[in-house]
Amino acid sequence: MTDIRVLVVDDDFRVAGLHRDAVASRPGFVALEPARTVGEARVALAVHSPDLLLADVYLPDGDGVELVRSAGIDAFVLSAATDAATVRRAFTAGALAYLVKPFDTRVLAERLDRYARYRNLLTSPRPLSQDDIDRAASVMRGEREGPSLARSATEQTVLAALGAEEASASEVAARIGVSRATAQRHLTTLAERGLVQVSLRYGSTGRPEHRFRAGT
């Protein structure tokens, strides 16, 4: 997955710098130069095409929530506003998260990590199942979903067959009595969700073999 480009929009340059640095500290994220107004933000959106917007509500030349609504990209709202109407308006506009300022930058880092997992789950090249969609929503909300929610019965069987050992798709297939193709498909799905780790091992013929291990 390519790096996630993030635009911070805040008229306080000190706060904007803190948020920018929090973004830059996370693996897989790139922090763009912050914008201080709606006008600057719109220029940055057009020029840099960020993936995620972190916007304050109160900006010198406009409303950050309306910026989120019109930007057409994923967004968090970071604001001192705590009235219910503003919070509802932010979520209605499409904000994935609402953080009340001031907050510890570790809180923002944790939300960014959640977002990276959420984004990864929703960028699969294959059609998404209901479990995939539910898992992505749960990850973004910080919920701990049980195995029955995020994994099918076959996937649970595949994970149980892996145990603590590393195995190939053929070995897993033999253990649970399914075809190699079926085992490979489920192992690939579990790897995309971060539940299984994949490595390559080269045999005597020189052909690489995918090896799977249950993730932590």
Tell me about this structure.
The protein is of the alpha/beta class and 216 residues long. It has 2 domains: 4-102, Rossmann fold (3-Layer(aba) Sandwich), CATH 3.40.50; 153-214, Arc Repressor Mutant, subunit A (Orthogonal Bundle). The chain is built from 10 helices and 9 strands. The chain has helices at 13-24, 38-48, 64-71, 84-92, 105-121, 130-141, 147-150, 153-162, 169-176, 180-192, and strands at residues 4-9, 29-31, 52-55, 58-59, 62-63, 74-79, 97-100, 196-202, 208-214. The strands form 3 sheets. The chain has a 5-stranded parallel β-sheet with strand order 2-1-3-6-7, sandwiched between helices. A hairpin with a 2-residue loop joins strand 4 and strand 5. Helix 1 crosses helix 5 (105-121), helix 3 (64-71) runs parallel beside helix 4 (84-92) and helix 8 (153-162) crosses helix 10. The protein is elongated and about 65 Å long.
